[in-house]
Design a protein that fits this description.
It comes from Calcarius ornatus. The chain is mainly beta. It is built from no helices and 13 strands. Strand 11 and strand 12 form a beta hairpin. The radius of gyration is 23 Å and the shape is elongated.
Length: 120
């Protein structure tokens, strides 16, 4: 279902060899804001060895699209990435931090709880 599907609908059918038409029914499609944003991580427990790979995935419990994703780290800094996952191919000492994902539908924003990543 898309927002553009809002409108009035009816059906037609044959009843005892006569065509009949139902009453009009109004259908209103509404946007559902993103909620239930959560993170998962590989390797488990968010502990990764120096130089190894870290993958963070952001999932949304509910929300209608299109959805956009953004990745952030604790403290000031630039946007880390966009899309439902973030991959750091060779983690360094400065990658130990709290990470979070923000999801937007253009009107509202939902954010995951922060995830502590430790580089060993």
């Amino acid at each position: 279902l898309r927002l553009r599907h809002s409108g009035h609908y009816h059906c037609k059918g044959r009843v005892l060899s006569q065509w009949r038409e139902s009453e009009l029914v109004a259908v209103a499609a509404h946007r559902v804001p993103p909620t239930g944003v959560s993170l998962s991580v590989q390797p488990p427990r968010a502990q990764v060895a120096l130089g190894d790979r870290l993958v963070l995935r952001c999932t949304v419990g509910m929300g209608t699209g299109p959805l956009s994703f953004s990745w952030h780290r604790e403290g000031p800094g630039a946007l880390l990435g966009t899309g439902p996952h973030l991959e750091l191919r060779h983690v360094g000492d400065n990658d130990s931090s709290q990470y979070r994902c923000q999801v937007s539908d253009g009107d509202s924003v939902a954010e995951s709880d922060p995830l502590n990543v430790t580089v060993l």
